Amino acid sequence: MLAVADLHAFYGKSHILHGVTLMVGEGEIVSLLGRNGVGRSTTIKAIMGDVHAAGSVRFRDEEICGLPPYVIARKGLGYVPENRDIFPTLTVRQNLLLGVKNTRRPGRWTMDDMFEMFPALRQRADNPGGVLSGGEQQMLTICRTLMGDPHLMMIDEPTEGLAPMLVTQVADLLVRIAARGVSILIVEQKLTIALNISRRVYVMGHGRVVFEGTPDDLRRSDGVRKEWLEV
Amino acid sequence: MFQLIFFSLLNGLVYGMLLFMLSSGLTLIFGMMGVLNFAHASFYMLGAYFAFTLGLHIGFWPALVIAPVLVGLLGALVERQGLRRVHGFGHIAELIFTFGVAILIEEVVQLVWGRPAKSYQVPVLLDFPLFRVMSSSFPAYKAFMLVVAVAIFAFIFVILTRTRAGLIIQASLTHPGMVAMLGHNVPRVFMVVFGIGSALAALAGVIAGPVLGTFPGMAQVLGSIVFVVVVIGGLGSLTGAFVASLLIGIVQTFAVAMDVSVGGALAAVGVHVNPGSALHDLWKVTIAQVAPILPYVLLVLMLIVRPTGLFGTRET
Lengths: 231, 316
Ligand SMILES: Nc1ncnc2c1ncn2[C@@H]1O[C@H](COP(=O)(O)OP(=O)(O)OP(=O)(O)O)[C@@H](O)[C@H]1O
Ligand SMILES: [Mg+2]
Prior knowledge:
CATH class of chain A: Alpha Beta
Strand order of the largest sheet of chain A: 5-6-7-3-8-9
Distance between the termini of chain A: 33 Å
Number of strands of chain B: 2
Order of helices and strands of chain B: HHHHEEHHHHHHHHHH
Structural class of chain A: alpha/beta
Low-confidence stretches of chain A: none
Strand order of the largest sheet of chain B: 1-2
Distance between the termini of chain B: 39 Å
Oligomer: heterodimer
CATH architecture of chain A: 3-Layer(aba) Sandwich
Order of helices and strands of chain A: EEEHEHEHHHHEHEHEEHH
Bound molecules: adenosine-5'-triphosphate, magnesium ion
Strand content of chain B: under 5%
Low-confidence stretches of chain B: none
CATH topology of chain A: Rossmann fold
Structural class of chain B: mainly alpha
Mean pLDDT of chain B: 90
Radius of gyration of chain A: 17 Å
Mean pLDDT of chain A: 92
Number of helices of chain A: 10
């Protein structure tokens, strides 16, 4: 589905990624872990074409590195940013509508599906996105990307700043999305959640991947956790 | 007195709506691309000149449509081939680029049409007084200007709030990057908005040319007022641009019509100045004389009291 090889990324002159290699298979949930500032968000943004990058990004057997973000999105790559980027002046319904890429070709997910999963969004359908709570905004931003019918979704810190109950709700949602055949690459700070829902995990350090394996592999590797994850 | 108020209001409305035809485009372009387009009023000037020349050959009415379309295409070209390439070098480069385009257009206009003002006339069909109130009359052409401006206002409103393209534009005002990552062709949206903004400025030029004059300095004269409008309204805010356009339009028209001195106006509101004071000469100036600087006074006051403008969210 997605195969990233030797990916380098730059913010102006500062070289942030030094050759990241990872892959995500069909219907898989894969976590990208690491301490703050190691370049997890940058990795997703580089795949999405949002930062200047070099290397290889193959998505569904097609090289996409260097294409503009809107072209990459149209190929079926969905992105949910760290800061959520809700359109604050538009209503919840309008936010969801903007997730749809092509109104003539409806995707697998409808607005009603979204409202069924999150009744809170239905109640808020005609309120501006800017007045939603943090949790509601997180649901909205994930649903908005789903409306674009992606084959793969990249989600940056979906549970950040959410109450424990909402954290479980988001985790459940991700599992349900993956069950419908959408691959997911998440950046997640909460290790337990990440290990519970992922099939495979990558750990990053200094702009590179320093560990890859199953959640069980990582649970057993005290050394990796001490050196690259625990603070 | 009634007569004065009535006509000033009406003229202020016409002028204000005209300002909105320019400020709406300018503020939308700023909101989306973060670029204050110095060449915006130049497209207004081109509209007037194009319509003048086209008018000589095919008449006013076809020119009313064709001139804005031509200028709109030119605007889209400037965005696509110029601004988009300069974008990678940052906002300063973009500012300088639009500044360069403005100068270039002014020079070309002087080269092609010469320095003296053109006698771009109101079309015969509309060259009659629409109605009279006491001793003054209101020209039909100004009513026509008002109708065009109101139609444009309705057009912008419907497009932005009732269509999908409008939603994409609204979302791009705050989060262009995110809109692109949802799969919308944001670069093309920029080009289209820039083109339509230029076309609206040109349309304003076509209809204002016969009234405000068609001369190489016309871009600068109106351009500076339009900048004042978007800053007072709040950069990037369409509502702000609308309110500020009407505000400036009406304030300025009223001021021009006032034949009292500043001292007299102050006395009317109960402030008496000593005729022998040091600023004696200042108080003898009439309100009409200070009218041209009033917008700038408002601008400075606004920047002191509320740097984001009336409806803006970011500092200017
Ligand atoms: N826009 C930017 N300009 C310059 N440097 C940046 C920019 N964004 C991030 N960086 C730098 O790039 C490095 C990696 O940032 P990134 O956002 O990818 O980290 P992260 O792993 O997602 O961590 P976190 O989200 O916890 O901050 C950091 O050192 C950061 O300071
Ligand atoms: Mg991050």
